[in-house]
Amino acid sequence: MKKQTYGAQAFSIVEGGKLLVAPTSAKDVVAVEGSVLGGSNHLPKRWDVIPSLSAELLDAGTNKKKKGVIRGALADRGISLSFSAGGDRTFFSGQCLPEDLPFLLSTIAECLGGAHFPEAEVKAAKARALGSIAELKTDTNMQARIALSRILYDTAHPNFSRTLEEEETSIRSSTRRNLLDFRHKFCRDGLVLAVTGDVNAGTVRKAAEKAFGKLPAKGFAPLAKQLNKKPSASAEKLIPIPDKANVDVLLGAALPLHKSDPLFYPAYLLAEMLGGGFASHLMMTIRERDGLTYGVYATLRGFDGATDGYLRIWATFSPEKYTESVAALRKEVRTFFSTSITEKALLKKKEEITGSYLVGLSTARGLARILHQFTIDGRDLAFLAEYPDYIRAVSLAHVRAAAKLVPLHKLSFAASGTFPKI
Amino acid sequence: MARRFATRVTVSGTTFVRELDGILEYRLNTNGLQILLTQDPNAPVAGFMVTYHVGSRNEAIGYTGATHLLEHLMFKGSKNFNKENKKTIWEILETKGALVNATTWNDRTNYFEVMPKEHLGTAITLEADRMRHAHIREEDRQSEMTVVRNEFERGENNPMEALDKQIWALAYEAHPYHHSTIGWRSDIEKVPIARLKQFYDDFYWPDNATVSIVGGFDVKEALAMIVKEFGKHSKKKGDYLAMYTEEPNQEGERRATVARAGNTDLVGIAHKVPAAVHSDIPALIILALILADGKTSRLYRTLVDSALAIDVSTNCYQFHDPSLLITYATLASRTPHQKIEELVKDAYRAIALKGVSSTELNRAKRSIRTYIASLRDGPYAFLSALNEQIAAGDWTRFVTFPKKLVQVSAKDVQRVARQYLIDDQSTVGWFKALPQI
User: Fold this and answer.
1) B115 touching chain A per CB within 8 A
2) pLDDT tens-digit readout, B332-384
3) Are residue A240 and residue A186 in the same domain, yes or no?
4) Per-residue b/e over A51-61, b at no fewer than 16 CB within 10 Å?
5) For labeling, which of A54, A91, A339, B223 is most exposed (least CB within 10 Å)?
């Protein structure tokens, strides 16, 4: 039987780039998701703010056009376009009407290949970034996330976060030259572009070839695999912040696992069984049975490119029930690992994930995101059809093997908020 | 969702009302349930939504947040779908891959499932069952109250949400838009189960609801299923409680301050605007886009490009009753609140005095054309947007409103700026960060 690939086609373009095109029934909707190599993991830790400053200013003027011309032309066509920075890549995401796709793609390529970061724009972007950092200092979720990453990882690891104060220092000392040096290494080798919606594959291919062919052939290269050097330890960190009505709590453990590892999908299913969706173990116990939280979630995080990631359990608790809630969370995590990894629970989760995958593909935006993600994960187009089979093929033995990677008695803990006086 | 197929059919027990741009409207003969169907036969996914015409505008002191708390209790089981028979919504739908949830807002409450289409029948059966046979029990209220309270607490952690509550509370002194959908903390904690049950019995009836289906399904089969399952219920006996409170005229600017430990400074400026179905709303929507939609908008260039603010947004709400047009700005470090307030008001005055350019008008219209196209991309976006028009009082606005936006002129924008963005009708809020102790 022919496998369903949702009308998607894959093309090699511009010597090193990959283009995925999927026409859908959406009228007047074109979704673009893409990325080039180049992110914070390509730079020394002290410069990890450069990619995000660069992403903010890619449309703020190029060698050929001023900011007002670029942004005005996009606005004239009703195009939305944003850039963002990750660990290994700089991403772009856009939406336009069908007739404007060639213009959108040429604008993206021009920004990636020619952004020149005017001094005044750099100064303003730094001021905004410092303002955002100030906000994050009292963000309970962000503070707990930073603390957990610092507990779990060695200081050189991509998943080790610097403090917000260190980030402030980096922002202040960033220069236009830093941004230009970073941007100059964007290249077409490693480019991934997914375009879906009211499109024709031939037209998209022609427009993409024309736009991105002007990028340099070589620049940033894929990064080598990394492994955390810090041993597991049941460390704890509390970050008190006054005047907060809610406490953010994180439990986690670094996993000796990459996305390409055979145990990745079993570990993903494990996390989903523990805390993915309302029917998961933690939601059914901590929220549904005990009423202790609005939400408790388990996810795999930090698996960017070649990076080994971690299991993260996140819950929010009322300060007045904090101690009781944390004890219940720890207990239910243990209970899950000892009694709830069963054939029946796995079968249910596999059915849920394969069904929700279909739902996720039902929009142009969802399809573009999945095509882009699979491609940067090193999968070919056939994987779009094969993914449900990969999930169905995961056995209970696989999931139990993945569970053994979690140092259950050495889970680390971070929490931030206004804690009760004990 | 491009090619919508208006395959009008006749199904016993229903009456065809009209067809508009591929959306078929029917009524269930026995109880008045409104049915909206939009078919895309090739889609492998279907979305189902029940919109109840009740929201936090139907609450009063003592049971603010009741609509939302009741929405949570609706997931605790019903006569034929419950924990005891192991047929909870999570077991029979989420574990099949369905996106299952519910949302509550000022004018409506909705329950929805987006799922592989073979499960549509299950969703219809379950929603029909809990429409009149939900378990509304004290033991569930006790455990769910703390869940909702934590949702409230999460919101309180967010400075923007805290300021927004204060602005609405000050802008509305009589009308129930005064309180936020989640309600006041003490009401969340203490509302009796009898009041929630009463709320359910007052509003959860077929003649106070609309069911919508979008995506891959057979119209005849779906209608037959709706007749079978929702046709079991009678219409409500007696009248619905009318929400008749009107907001008195505002006589002068109002000001609020929220001061808390932290590093975030915000300014919010709200002005009264008419109800969603009013003829001035299209021009007000275009006005809001010209003010703060995207990097070429007036306020973005004035506040964010200059690094006086980190971000800015302007939103013209479209509610059943007169509501607000609000601008929020998050201040950069050391920017005084007063400066941002003056610059926003200057931008308002500039439009009122000098109008907007044709370039600005065309950009706003192009932006909204792209946005409106995206509302038909997939079942959830479609259902969600249609649901807001149902709540506003007229689902056909989903089709007709884009045409009205196209007709807005520069003069219309200037006129509504003059008419509505006046200081006497404003409510200004400052969130002030206090030094951390």
Assistant:
1) yes
2) 988 999 999 999 999 999 999 999 999 999 999 999 999 999 999 999 999 99
3) no
4) bbbbbbbbbbb
5) A339
Question: Do B310 and A349 make contact, defined as CB atoms within 8 angstroms?
Answer: no
The question of ipTM being above 0.95 is answered as: no
Mean pLDDT of A244-257: 96
Query: B405 and B270 share a domain?
Result: yes
Radius of gyration of chain A (CA): 23
CA atoms of B383 and B38, how far apart (whole Å): 10
The tokens of B207 are what?
């003649």
Chain B: nearest CA to A212, how far in angstroms? 24
A41 and A179 both lie in a single domain: yes
For residue B301, give the CATH number of its domain. Answer: 3.30.830.10
In a 13 Å sphere around the CA of A137, the CA atoms on its Cβ side amount to: 20
- Per-residue pLDDT, averaged over B39-68, amounts to 96
Position B6 confidence tier, pLDDT thresholds 50, 70, 90: low
Quote the radius of gyration of chain B (alpha carbons, Å).
Answer: 23
Q: Which residue has the tokens 């940033």?
A: A220
Q: How high does pLDDT run on average in chain B?
A: 95
Cβ atoms within 10 Å, residue B354: 10
Residues in a beta bridge with A31: A95, A196
Q: Among A180, A212, A244, where does a domain finish?
A: A212
Structural domain range at position B179: 14-230
**Quick one: tokens of B282?**
């299209």
What is the domain-level CATH number for residue A67?
3.30.830.10
| % of chain B exceeding 70 in pLDDT | 98
A264 and A200 within one domain: no
Residues 183-242 in A contacting B (C-alpha not used; CB under 8 Å): 197-198, 241-242
Structure tokens at A369: 């995101």
Contact A294 B304 (CB under 8 A): no
Domain residues for A41? 9-212
B71 lies in the same domain as B178 = yes
Mean pLDDT for A388-410 is 97
Provide the domain count of chain B.
2
Locate the DSSP E strands across A235-330: 236-240, 247-254, 296-301, 310-317
**Do A205 and A244 share a structural domain?**
no
> Distance between CA atoms of A277 and B170, rounded to whole angstroms?
37
Domain check: are B339 and B425 in the same one? yes
Contacts of A327 (CB under 8 A, 6+ apart): none
Asked if residue B248 is part of any domain, the answer here is no
Number of domains in chain A: 2
pLDDT > 90? residue B3: no
User: Within a domain: residue A229?
Assistant: no
Asked if B10 is an interface residue toward chain A (Cβ–Cβ < 8 A), one would say no
Mean pLDDT of B84-89: 94
Note whether residue A228 is domain-resident. no
8 Å CB contact between A251 and A330: yes
- Tell whether B236 is covered by a domain: no
Whether residues A140 and A186 share a domain: the answer is: yes
Q: Cβ of B357 under 8 Å from any chain A Cβ?
A: no
Q: Are A26 and A197 in contact (CB under 8 A)?
A: yes
Can you tell me the distance from the alpha carbon of A293 to that of A317, in angstroms, rounded to the nearest whole number?
5
The verdict on B273 and B409 lying in the same domain is yes
To 5 degrees, how large is the angle CA A95–CA B43–CA B219? 125
A95 vs B156, B370, B380: nearest CB? B370
pLDDT at B8: 84
Instruction: Decide if A404 touches B, using CB distance below 8 A.
Output: no
- Model's pTM, two decimal places? 0.95
Q: What is the DSSP letter of A43?
A: S
Render A1-31 in DSSP notation, one character per residue: -----TT-EEEEETTTEEEEEEE-S-SS-EE
**Domain final residue, candidates A162, A178, A212:** A212
Residue B245 placed within a domain? no
pLDDT at residue A354 is higher than 50: yes
What gap in Å lies between CA A380 and CA A23, rounded to an integer?
18
Which residues lie below 8 Å from residue B425, measured CB to CB, with a gap of 6+?
Answer: B250, B271, B272
